Amino acid sequence: MKLPCVISSGRLVAAALAGLLAAGCIADTGAPTAPDGTAAIAAARGGIAGAPADAVVRFGNPDAGTDRFGPVHPSAHAVDNIIPNSVVIRAGGTVTFEVVPPHVVTIYEPGTTPDDIRLIPGVTLVNHVGPPGPAFIPNFYIDEPNGRLFRDPAPAFGPPHSVQYTFDAPGRYLVICSIAPHFALKMYAWVEVK
Amino acid sequence: MRSPHRLAPALGLALALSTVLAPAAAAQGRSPADARLVDGHRLTMPMLRKVLPALSAPGSASCPRDRRDPRSLPLAEMTQMIERCAPMAQALRRAAVPPREAALVMASLYRTAEAVAIRRGDVNAVDQGPLRDNALLMQENDAEIKRLTGENR
Predict the structure, then answer these.
(1) Residue B21 included in any domain
(2) Whole-structure pTM value
(3) How many domains, in total, are found in chain B?
(4) Which candidate, A107, A181, A95, A185, places its Cα nearest to that of A144?
(5) Are A157 and B26 inside 8 Å of each other by CB?
(6) CA distance linking residue A55 with residue A32, whole number of Å
(7) Given this model, what pLDDT does residue A135 score?
(8) Beta strand A171-177 with A105-108: parallel, antiparallel or unpaired?
(9) pLDDT above 60 for A4
(10) Quick one: which of A183, A185, A164 has its CA closest to A174?
């Protein structure tokens, strides 16, 4: 597992990203995130012959304003959203997650599906009583260690920040928000590494 | 009968107030009394230490759950759901916490997260009062709260 570069001050994210870029820590993707949250692929500099090297993902959608119950897309609520919810990068590429709290970026190894994540012991999105959809799960943070590669160590209610993760091996990685009600509302995304 | 131009200021004020108040009430989907109670609730670590482990007590996985948005459930219905779940209810009884208090704690956690999210993740931008204090408490006790709600107990 690669150590993430964590930028702790939201106000300085742009400047810090520029600094990291200058330092060669990340690539400037210049990638606009999809406003509708559909499966958009982040464009990236250096994207030769297929998948781009890197991507930027917005983890939480502050632009939703107070319309936080209006779904931006069917699988998530407006603010509890990952945009885009699917990116493709090359092996060895880095994804920068721009976190607008309160959210917890958590990455799982390829092969892990949302149905493998236990919200509480014995309860996943599919096996709890009743039809699929939101439910009152009396828990706040998910702690599913099986297949977990990374969990953002920054406080969930800390300042906005960026966190990076480098994906070395090909595969389809599940990325979730570990806040239980957010995940229950399907706040998850995919990073496909070619 | 009042003339229209005298009514206008009052109408304007009412409209302005409804603009301010409506989003919170609509988002909560709860009664105004419930919404006030949740917004005015102050989380404390001693209470979280009791409630969070109790609500995911072993055996609670088999309890039925309300399928509506957890952030809009009325407190009375959240309370009933907890009361009907024997493992949770027993764990709360052992901790000397009434089910309604546990429901209020969960609703407050959800509401606090919401309040921070709509302030673009800036805890300090949340209006001064219980919601901001709750967010700061969540920030300051992040590691312990994650442990309390984790499954590796």
Answers:
(1) no
(2) 0.73
(3) 1
(4) A107
(5) no
(6) 10
(7) 56
(8) antiparallel
(9) no
(10) A183
Name chain B contacts of A62, Cβ cutoff 8 Å. 117, 120-121
ipTM: 0.75
| Residue B23 within a domain | no
Residues on chain A touching B88 (C-beta within 8 angstroms): 138
CA distance A50 to chain B (A): 34
* A74 and chain B in contact, CB less than 8 A: no
Specify if B20 maps to a domain: no
- Spell out which residues of chain B touch residue A138, defining contact as CB-CB under 8 Å: 55-56, 60, 82, 88, 102, 106
Domain edges within chain A: 6-193
Q: Does A118 touch chain B (CB under 8 A)?
A: yes
Tell me which DSSP letter residue B60 carries: G
Q: Which CATH architecture has domain A6-193?
A: Sandwich (2.60)
- Please indicate whether, in this complex, the C-beta atoms of A123 and B109 are within 8 angstroms of each other: no
Residue A97: strand pairing partners: A57, A163
What confidence tens digit (pLDDT) does each residue in B20-71 have? 333 343 344 678 999 999 999 999 999 999 999 998 888 877 787 766 666 7
Single-letter residue type at B125: A
**B88 touches A: beta carbon within 8 Å:** yes
The answer to whether residue A21 scores a pLDDT higher than 50 is no
Is A48 within 8 Å of chain B by CB?
no
A109-134, pLDDT tens digit by residue?
999 999 899 887 777 776 554 455 45
pLDDT for the residue A65: 52
Residue B69 to residue A134, Cβ atoms within 8 A: yes
Structure tokens at A138: 């009396």
Neighbouring C-beta atoms of residue A23, cutoff 10 Å: 9
